[in-house]
Amino acid sequence: MATTEAVDVVMPQMGVSVSEGTITKWLKQVGEEIEADESLLEISTDKVDTEVPSPASGVVTQILVQEGETVDVGTKLAVIGGEAGAEAEAPAAEPQAEAPEEVAQPAETPAVEPAAAPKPTPAAATTPAEAQQNGKSFVSPVVARIASEHGVDVSSVPGTGRGGRVTKKDILNFVESGAPAAPPQEEAPAAAPEPAPEPAPAPAAEPAPAPAAEAPPKPPPAPAPEPVAATAGEQLEPMNAMRRGIAEHMRRSLDTAAHVTSAIEVDMSRVVEIRNKLKPEYQKTYGVNPTYLIFVARAVVETLKKYPWVNGEIRGEQIVTRPWVNVGFAVELADGKGLIVPVVKHAEGLNLLGMAQAVTDIADRARNKKLTPDEVQGGTFTITNPGGYGTFHGTPVISQPQAAILGTYALVKRPWVVQDSFGKDVIAIRPIMNLTLTYDHRLVDGALAGRFLKDLKEALETWDEVAY
Amino acid sequence: MAEMTYLQAISDGLRVEMRRDKRVFVIGEDVGVYGGAFKVTLGFQEEFGSWRVIDAPLSETAIVGSCTGAAIMGMRPVAEMQFADFISCAWDQLVTVAAKQRYRAGTPVPIVVRLPSGGGFSGGPFHSQNPESSFAHIAGLKIVCPATPEDAKGLLITAIEDPNPVLYFEHKHLYRRLKADVPEERYTIPFGKARVHREGDDVTVVTWGAMVHTADEAAKELEGDGVSVEILDLRTLIPWDRKAVLESAEKTSKVLVLHEDTRTGGFGGEIAATIGEEAFEHLDAPIMRIAAPDTPVPFSPPLEKAFIPQVEDVVKGLKELAEY
């Protein structure tokens, strides 16, 4: 039953855009028995926290990455079963438990190998496995081989492939440019290694440079991470995976999209009225609160049907549109130290109640880090709601690769010019909400954004209870 | 050199061999008086007589069976199926008898079965298939899939010379669409030698038959984007040129395998697996396959277009690989 072959446990891929994870807790220690699919450790990524099940039954023979460390997807974390295990167990002998025929075994094992030493990690700093540790993403077989042959640290090579991946051309150019081989890496990396500075990943769209074209100037190999020093009174706190994920995404978004924001004021009188009517029933019967955000989301989904580009994406040289709307909602974590954007998939199929239920469910689980990787992916449009604290305007950052993000702000009673039944202007007190659309001007022009906001405003001001 | 269509080149190759070698004869449904379903043997009966250009009854089993017998007796038969799809009727004669005779009894079976194959003209599920991979799986058969007029002629002559049963898949869509200079004299093209249809550095397309031209158009579209595409035309699937494929895979490190046949069990899987086994350390991207979906060939023109890999599908796949 238990495995006799050593089985590696690696950092799992928890979603397409997740490239690394942090070990938060080992649930089993070296020498303990574990069943296949039993939880072995807990990890935290910038998207979700989860438990990692054991790939095999057997004894945990090695733990290679300690709690608190952050490593790339695919990095070997532990070993289940195998020879090292048999040897590791030997010192902790349980004499009476040993079957007699096994007594002969130690004599057969070569005496030269010290029993305690776990299997050494591959020696050279330049083996593919090692190189991958600092590499931003997947290292293909050919890149691994070239890196190994030339003693290059892949993480010091600027990548132009998908997601900044180092392609064969990248590493060949790097080698040809005579970049020195990477210095031998330190053995135990510091608890929170600073990621090597690297160029902004080229958007996937960018056509690969012609082979013979002049290569861009090669940055020198990544310098050793600078020690982070605090001056007196400052406090240092390591960035967690989520914070680093947010930092990277926000920077990349601003580097990618041409952000422009347009705002509109919406008279929410009708929505307020309907909400007051629905609220008791929704809360009593369904246990959900029909918040203003839900109304806005419902109207947004309806309006997006007429504006496929606002719900679209630039992919390479192509414009992607789709007949569905997957709405992401920016949600602050319960501890106030992070933000996650769970996605309500196929929101075009939800009525107001369905939207309320979907958002309540996903937001609750987001706050408590109970989302599955799938639930934070595939968004086509995002809504962020910083208005809860009274702010009346903002310029959010687009969630890549989407085309736009809607901001909703505080509902404020304001003096408002309206027409009375005689057609005369009078000042009335109206609940007004500001909405902003921040859009990628590469795809969405100002006029289109303006029409979108106008239609959205109309949908909210003339809320149609039957249709919505 | 003379300018010939793909179809004329096949006729020419057959005519050249029949004039040269009295053992060569043609048999099939309507190949004589009518000149063949696609007129490949038009005028042959007048030139060679009805004993060498034989109109057969509507029985593919009988056609391949009699060819096998004639071949064992020393003749060089060339059978024509009206459509490659109908070869299934002759499966037993071909697979159980012809393919195994040499192994079982030591007697060679030098037959050629000409198979007008492929879609693109709304022929529907019985008149459009590319069943080459079904036969590539049978030890003892050779599989030829020419993509150009010059190859069509030279490979047909090689097929007739070959001492084994050869399935010669001629693509109907190319019959009259392709026109090129073809040597007038007799020449052969060796089996198992791929042709570099186009040289490139960034991505390799491995393909055969009509898809060579689809790949070519896609490659031209990508020139503007600075993506340099190499196209290997395998020309023969059994034997296939592993060396050329592996060399190109090692050069570009990114491979797209493209075929008009359906995906599952298609010959592309064999090629992809071989590259994975032999050239793993040279790969810079997953090996990609583009093929028809696993359905019968539709009649409806829009559906058929969706079924057969189109230039835009190949462009998309190549871009994906180039950007990987």
What attributes does this structure have?
heterodimer; A: 468 residues; alpha+beta; 6-stranded mixed beta sheet; 4-stranded antiparallel beta sheet; 10 helices; 18 strands; B: 324 residues; 5-stranded mixed beta sheet; 14 strands
Structure overview:
The complex is a heterodimer of chains A (468) and B (324). Chain A has 468 residues and is of the alpha+beta class. Helices cover 25% and strands 21% of the residues of chain A. In chain A, helix 3 (128-134) packs across helix 4 (141-150), helix 4 packs parallel to helix 5 and helix 8 (292-304) crosses helix 10. Chain A has helices at 83-89, 105-108, 128-134, 141-150, 168-176, 241-256, 269-286, 292-304, 352-367, 446-461, and strands spanning 7-10, 20-26, 33-34, 39-44, 49-53, 58-63, 70-72, 76-80, 259-267, 313-315, 318-320, 327-329, 331-332, 339-340, 343-344, 381-384, 404-419, 425-440. Mean pLDDT of chain A is 79; it is low at 84-135 and 182-216. Chain B is of the alpha/beta class and 324 residues long. In chain B, 38% of the residues lie in helices and 20% in strands. Chain B is built from 11 helices and 14 strands. Chain B has a 7-stranded mixed sheet with strand order 3-2-4-5-7-6-12, sandwiched between helices. The model of chain B has no long low-confidence stretch (mean pLDDT 97). Classes of the chains: A alpha+beta (468), B alpha/beta (324). At the A-B interface, helix 4 of A face helix 11 of B.
Task: Detail the topology: elements first, then pairings.
The complex is a heterodimer of chains A (468) and B (324).
Chain A: E1 7-10, E2 20-26, E3 33-34, E4 39-44, E5 49-53, E6 58-63, E7 70-72, E8 76-80, H1 83-89, H2 105-108, H3 128-134, H4 141-150, H5 168-176, H6 241-256, E9 259-267, H7 269-286, H8 292-304, E10 313-315, E11 318-320, E12 327-329, E13 331-332, E14 339-340, E15 343-344, H9 352-367, E16 381-384, E17 404-419, E18 425-440, H10 446-461
Parallel strand pairs in A: 12-16, 16-17
Antiparallel strand pairs in A: 1-8, 2-4, 2-7, 3-6, 4-5, 6-8, 9-18, 10-11, 12-15, 13-14, 17-18
Helix pairs in contact in A: 3-4, 4-5, 8-9, 8-10
Chain B: E1 2-5, H1 6-20, E2 24-28, H2 44-48, E3 53-55, H3 60-72, E4 76-80, H4 91-105, E5 112-117, H5 132-136, E6 142-144, H6 149-161, E7 166-171, E8 179-182, E9 195-198, E10 203-207, H7 211-223, E11 229-233, E12 236-238, H8 242-252, E13 255-262, H9 267-278, E14 288-292, H10 301-307, H11 311-323
Parallel strand pairs in B: 2-3, 2-4, 4-5, 5-7, 6-7, 10-11, 10-13, 13-14
Antiparallel strand pairs in B: 1-8, 6-12, 9-11
